[in-house]
Amino acid sequence: MANLHIGYIIDWDQRRWYAVKGPPKLLPDGEGKEINVLKRHIDQLARNVHSITVDDEGLLISVSTDPEEDPTLVTHFPRFATAPSLHDCSTVKVSSLTEVDRLGPGVDLMNYAESSTVERKVVFKYSMISQWRRQIWAEMHLLKSLPRHPNLIPLDSVVLDDVESRVLGFTTTYIPGGTLDENRDLIFRFEWLQQLTATVDFLNLDLGIVHQDIAPRNLVIDPETNKIRLFDFDRAARTGCPGCIPERSDIRGLVCTLYELITHNEQIWQVPFEERDPATMQNLEWPVERRLDGDISLFRSHLNAWVQRRTEACEAGNMQGFKTSVTPDIPPPSPIVTGYNEVALPIYETAIVRRRTDAMRLKQHIVPWERPPQNLINYSK
User: Fold this and answer.
1) pTM
2) How many helices (H) and strands (E) does the chain have?
3) Nearest-angstrom CA–CA distance, 150 and 298
């Protein structure tokens, strides 16, 4: 087939890269139709397949296991020894973590054996692609900086590669029971709203940190303490620093969160964040679809008073004056010899990303991310 379009897809379940080839009519640029084509055939593919070619109907014509067609990109992970900002953190080798579930792209639930008789569950966040590398690094350092707090989920450990002790990601404490987004039948308690507003005040006003993604999916109730706990700081930023977006303020996020929790109306999250207006939402009627432990007027009165107080604090400039804390740069890769020039002198290069085939030729260590599909795993063993 001539004039093939080629799209590159990551299967997050198996953590594998595929090239999908087909006619432009079937796979037009920029529409992402390669994903559905790959879904159609992926269960039939051997684990050493790198690329597939389909016809006008999306039917499989051929597959390739040629390493030269392997689209996998490998990302630089810094050695722990070159990251002094993490040297006061607990560490765990990735081989010590046993998969329990897959929670989403780059997020797994793991068992960790603290001793021969004690196991506990942790959430492992990582980035196998360069686009998320800085985000994971920044979140790890921000979590590391947080003081212990009953309503925040802290950093647990830095996760290291077994061969070269490279920093792959981090773990956080796992709180069982599911998020408030998943537990719609749970009676929402007024004290949890009070705890949440106090926690946001602590982050914003005491620490100068804005979470920027407060939502029911990022809130859990700790079954041991019966307290609400906030997690997922991958969009968080320090006040006044790059990445801190006024339209993502935690005031807006908390108003939207309480609105969804009480009304079960998720449409607010379909509105672009810069267009979500807390004042408009506060003036709407809130049909009560969730059981509450008090009258809705109690919840709304507390929310309205809190929003007013926080808005006045922002207007008075009380969100300024925090000591700037800069996330350290990710340590760069060491130069490696990639060839020799015409006078036999070595050519050195550094690269954040390389094709896996090139990394293998250069005898670089490659983190083995690939794994079997989840539907073939028996977690009960």
Assistant:
1) 0.92
2) 7, 18
3) 24
